[in-house]
Design goal:
Jelly Rolls; about 45% strand; globular
Length: about 130
Amino acid sequence: MEVKNLSEVRAFITKDGSEIRELLAYRNSCIRNQSLAEAKLPPGASTTAHRHQKTEEIYYILEGRGRMRLDAETRSVGPGDAIAIPPGSVHQITNTGEGVLKFLCCCAPTYEHEDTFLEPAAEDFQA
């Protein structure tokens, strides 16, 4: 049985600028076709707008408040919200709260820098 504790997993910065701790993926477990990570964004920070050609994602908000942009739509999000992000959709999350924004990222197939394509800033994005 494989059990990974968040405190045992090293953090790294993704291509979009968020700090994540990859709990389960092929890099550290028997999991081969998906990944699960915890992401953190400090107050006022945003990920860089980006898309994944192959990967679909689910963000699940654990703590904090944010603004989620998915293609041309923007919405406030908070604890308990699950956000579906289809492959090819431009997305960005911004911490709008006073504390750290923490969320889980579920990716299938697994997160890869090579499948992350950065996009123009939100104010420059034209849907």
